[in-house]
Every structure is written in structure tokens, then in C-alpha cells.
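In response to reviewer comment 3 from the previous cycle, which asked for concrete evidence that the modeling workflow produces usable outputs, we include below a single protein chain processed end to end. The sequence was submitted unchanged, and the resulting C-alpha cells are shown without manual editing.
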Amino acid sequence: MIESDTIKLLRECDAGVKMGVSSIEDVLSYVSREEMEKALKTCKAEHDKLDTEIQGLLDRYKDEGKNPAPMAKGMSWIKTNVKLAMNESDATVADLITDGCNMGVKSLNRYLNQYKAADEVSKDIAKRLINLEEQLTIDMRPFL
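The workflow returned the following C-alpha cells.
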């Protein structure tokens, strides 16, 4: 049970990290303020570090991980492009990123509760990812 929950939690973290990186990449070209760009790039770099850690653990379990659900990724892309087409501003980017982070935090907390038997290393990764998302939400507030 521990190994099963650990792998499932790591898969969800894997999908979450990939979704976060993709979302940041989708909006970076629309950012005009240097401070905002720096915050996004810093967060993306932290996501990349976590991704490397997650991949190492998944490799140990001989698991390929998980990509974000195509429907979720597609809906995110549509929402991002529609909102930015209507208003290309840092406030729009901050709004989109904040919404995405909030959804990520909600999902990751749900998975932490669902996979209670996961090992502490995997739980720690999930918590660090949650903290990254929460911090990015805070970092976006001045741009809303």
C-alpha cells in the first residue's frame, strides 16, 4: 500500500509540475514588467528542480510518471489565449497564474489526503510544490 500510494502521489506531483511549467511558459511572452518576469522565471526554475527530483524517484520505482490531463491542459490553453487576446496585460497574466496556482494547491492537497500511505519523501515533495504555488500566488498579488 505504501509503495502504491507513493507512486500515485508522485505521478500527481509530476503532472502538477509539468502543468505549472507549461502555464508559466504560455504567459511569459506577455509579461512586460521585469519584476513579474523574474518571479515567474524563478518559480519555473524551482518547478524544474522538483521535476528532476520527482523523475529520479519515479525512475527508482520504474514508473514513467504522468502528464497533465489533455482536457485540463487544453482548457488552460484556451482560457489563457482568450483572456490574453482580450487584454494583454500583466494583470491578466497575474490573474491567470493565480487561478492556476489555486487549482494546483487544491488538487495537490486532495491527493495528499487521498494517498495517506505515501512515504514521507513523496509527501514532502507534494508539500514543497504546494508551497511553491502558494508563494507564486503571493508574488502575483502586486500585479493584479
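The mean pLDDT is 95. We consider this sufficient to address the reviewer's concern, and the full set will be provided in the supplementary archive.
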